[in-house]
Specification:
By secondary structure, chain A is an alpha+beta fold. Chain A is built from 16 helices and ten strands. In chain A, the strands form two sheets. Chain A has a five-stranded antiparallel β-sheet. In chain A, strands 6-7-8-10-9 form a five-stranded mixed β-sheet, with helices on one face. In chain A, helix 7 packs antiparallel against helix 8 and helix 9 packs parallel to helix 11. The longest helix of chain A is centred in the last third of the chain and has 67 residues. Chain A is rod-shaped, with a radius of gyration of 42 Å. Chain A starts with a helix and ends in a 5-residue tail after the last strand. Chain B is built from ten helices and six strands, in the order βαβαβαβαβαβααααα. In chain B, strand 1, helix 1 and strand 2 form a beta-alpha-beta unit. By secondary structure, chain B is of the alpha/beta class. Chain B is 49% helix and 14% strand. In chain B, strands 2-1-3-4-5-6 form a six-stranded parallel β-sheet, with helices on both faces. The chains are: A alpha+beta, B alpha/beta.
Chain lengths: 600, 234
Amino acid sequence: MSTHAAAEASGGRWTGTSGHVLAIALLGAAASLLVVVLGWSSPLISHPHVAAAVRGLFVATYVGVGAYTWSRRPASRIGPLITGAGFLYAVVALAAVDDPLPYTIGRVALAAQVVYFAFLFITFPRERPSTRLERRFLGVAAAATVVVWAVTLALVDTLPHGGPLTDCTPQCPGNALQVVETSDGVTSALGLLATVLSALIVLGLIAVLSRKAASATLIRRRVVVPLLYASILFVATYATYSLVSQVGDTQPGPGLRVVAVAGAFAVPLALLYGQLRGRLFAAASLWRTMGRAGPRQVTPAQMQDFLGETLGDPSFELLVWSPERNVYVDVSGEPVELAEPSPSRSITRVAQAGSPSLALVHDAELDDDPETVRGLGAAASALLENVTLVRELQASRARIVDSAEQERHRLERDLHDGAQQRLTTIQLRLALAQERAPDGQLGDELAELETEAATAAAELRALAHGIYPALLADAGLAPALRSFASSATIPIRVVDHGVGRAQAGTELAIYYCVLEALQNVVKHAGPRAGAVVTLTRARDTIGFEIRDDGAGFDRAGHTDGIGLVSMRDRIGAAGGTLEIHSSPGAGATVYGSVPAGGQG
Amino acid sequence: MRERPRAVSDRIRVIVGEDSFLTREAITALLRSTEGVELVAACEDADALRAAIEREHPDVVLTDIRMPPSRLDEGIKLATELRETRPEIGVVVLTQHAEPGYAALLFDGGSEGRAYLLKESLKDRAELVRALRTVAEGGSVVDPLVVDQLLTARTRREDSRLASLTPRELEILGLIAEGRSNGAIADKLFVTKRAVERHINSIFLKLGLRDGGDVSRRVKAALLYLSGETAEGH
């Protein structure tokens, strides 16, 4: 009963159906025009021009709303069903022809239309009645209508009064299908019976709709409630009109006529509004879901709760497609076999870029508005995808930074243990050789070589230090930063509140970030500025702060310079955050915090 | 200065810890040909070094900062360990990093009997002997290159109290930080010991440091001052 949701989800929204929706619309326009023509000069109707226009508009409204629904839900039968109501009314409009046969056909069509409306209202927004009670009610209504009308057609010479859209002046044509001549008493009794039957059908209809409107899910209520009110309005005005024209022998006044016509129009408009309202609701829900979820940290479990709550379905389940395992997994990551849809549980699949993304397992009632479910599903899919991408990006950024740092570390070690070591050894041996060399040219040359080697060693030392701060790996953040501070050109104090050691990558990220910040102080804070670096550790988070007493800057006027971007990059890759506060004349402070990630 | 049981004229018994074969060979060759120094063992990792220390009771351990197994700062760890277990043994930590931070780590628990030297400074035999002798006697030595680096950075800072020092005083501050005694400074600068003492008093007054008669403490104070660790006047 609910597979259509899946079918619709995979089908295009407008594609493939627009041609036939256009044809229906044209056909509807033709039918509407025909109805206007039939009524325009009809001697049977009072104010025929106005009435004809109203009737034409009535046909056009149903066909229009039907076509709209059809185009939005091409796989559902509800669109054709609404459209059909419009065409059926075009047949009803034959009652305007001043000739017994078309008149009789029109009146029979009207009786059929009552049952048709009942079917449509009960079914909406689905394709067929969903409970046994509904089916039974419709069956009884249809059967009773057939019986009553068969008898009526056979026996009466004047058909009972129609509603506000079909009534005629007292000079109505006779019953073209009469078989047996009967008395006026029989005619009026059967007329009353037909009217009572219609009244019973509409009362039953209201009862069924009320029951449906009170049902559990928000979505269903939102879709059905407008139809319920419109039906009540329609039925009430229709019944009043019919009773007035049936019981009293006078024509109902124009006031009642206008109200009754308005009631008739309320229904298709309610069908339309129900759908639009569903869409508005979906949009609002999406907005709320997105707002609550936040851009980065939403988990599938949270998403499941949000969607369940938004859709008013406590049993809502979110299954996420796992491309690696080729299976759906639930929010705790357990693989799940998709159950067959049942009358009470429905499955809506959401695809992204052609491949499966999510499966929403929900109360079948939500199929009343598959658009909302699918819309929410698509948004959830996009959000979760986004979260995954952000996480992957962060991980890959961390990997890149990490592998670059590891490479630098390796390079520094290679230099230290290789070239630097050899140069040192060469210097020592040159010194020894020099001692043994006789005075003269050789000794001088050796001394020269030694000086050369010393210069090379100094250059290499500076290079190695630039590549990777060995002290950081050996002793951690505080000593490394102190060492940097001791050779800086501005006074820098390092205050260590027990920062301890952390993972190598984390320490390096913080180290370079602090250096970057201190370089900013040197460059921008003015010649007399000094800085205090404070390192803290709270549980598994390292906090650091670089506060200067320099010129400061107006944060608003500062776009993130390249230095700040690379600081954020490093700290972001380590899973931390960075904040910068400054105002002119009050110095600047950089705060950061990074998860320590265990001992490195 | 702390009194040691050993007479200064005795040969200094030295153990070397260096993992690189060629460098170890060069260092041991240097030590063997140095008068007043007796090389008793040369080890290639920290564990062998510990064992040799237990066995030989050297006066001085001359060790690379990076040693197997961890290849991080084994040399400094060992120096810290020995401060507890054998405070009478001097330790010269050799390094290829002209990094004041390592000196600070080495002096963390006290600077007595500790030297921080760049490996290549060993080529200056006089410097080598000075370092061995100084740590054997409980003094401290910091490689001139490291002190130089600190002094340069420090004098570049505009607000430094160093600006109030005369060039001669600045020079003497550097020599203090390197761990030289008043006598050695006097010799180096061709002035009298009395003059050096006057200079030192003036320097410590200007910098707001307490003058310890203890050369080793003096080294640490000067180093700390130079690396900006002490709040001025602290």
